[in-house]
Structure to design on (228 residues):
């Protein structure tokens, strides 16, 4: 990600519409691709109030910049949360949840830590729809047993339909992080009436990195952190 471009974009996007800025909380999600030199205080000054940081993938990868990213976001006063990139074909959901928790994925009821998120994308991993639902339930059950919170589920509506058969089994308990790179969210997956987080822009060329927003501003963001 080219940080100078990112900051310039934020300066425009977060000041062009004061009403929109008040109505939503803006955030980013990052991984090792962004490197270690992220100016967190600058991002905060340009309207960023939360960040999700990739912690793990499968059961054999830890983001080498995770601590740097996570501590940086925390020190700057941003709400922060970890996410796990799922590899459903590699090992069980419960095993990956345990790996995630052991390598930065835990949650704290401190009002600043967002619940861990499960990043589901990249095809159906050769699983049937029912097997994918079972895998997600396995991950979720293990995470909830340890952290007393259900993980946020990061998905696109198309992925959810293709890989779970549009299951409605998670909407009442799991916050939705919807990826929809358009001017509006579009249709939601079955079971959810709203999205807790909307990833509305993804890094492409000179476009800034992944950008997210929470409708309802800081109050809704705090509610997500506290789980009520």
């Amino acid at each position: 990600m080219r940080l100078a471009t990112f900051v310039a974009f934020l300066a425009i996007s977060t000041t062009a519409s004061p009403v929109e800025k008040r109505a939503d909380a803006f955030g980013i999600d990052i991984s090792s691709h962004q490197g270690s030199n992220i100016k967190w205080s600058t991002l905060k000054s340009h309207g960023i109030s939360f960040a999700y940081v990739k912690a793990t993938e499968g059961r054999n990868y830890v983001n080498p910049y995770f601590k740097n990213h996570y501590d940086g976001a925390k020190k700057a006063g941003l709400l922060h949360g970890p996410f796990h990139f799922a590899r459903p074909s590699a090992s069980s959901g419960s095993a990956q949840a345990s790996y995630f928790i052991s390598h930065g994925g835990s949650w704290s009821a401190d009002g600043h830590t967002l619940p861990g998120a499960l990043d589901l994308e990249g095809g159906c991993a050769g699983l049937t729809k029912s097997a994918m639902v079972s895998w997600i339930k396995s991950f979720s059950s293990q995470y909830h047993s340890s952290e007393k919170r259900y993980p946020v589920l990061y998905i696109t509506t198309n992925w959810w339909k293709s890989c779970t058969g549009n299951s409605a089994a998670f909407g009442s308990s799991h916050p939705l992080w919807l990826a929809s790179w358009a001017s509006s969210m579009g249709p939601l997956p079955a079971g959810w009436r709203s999205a807790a987080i909307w990833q509305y822009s993804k890094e492409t060329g000179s476009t800034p990195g992944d950008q997210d927003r929470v409708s309802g501003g800081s109050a809704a963001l705090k509610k997500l952190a506290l789980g009520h």
Q: What stands out?
A: The CA atoms of residues 182 and 200 lie 6 Å apart.
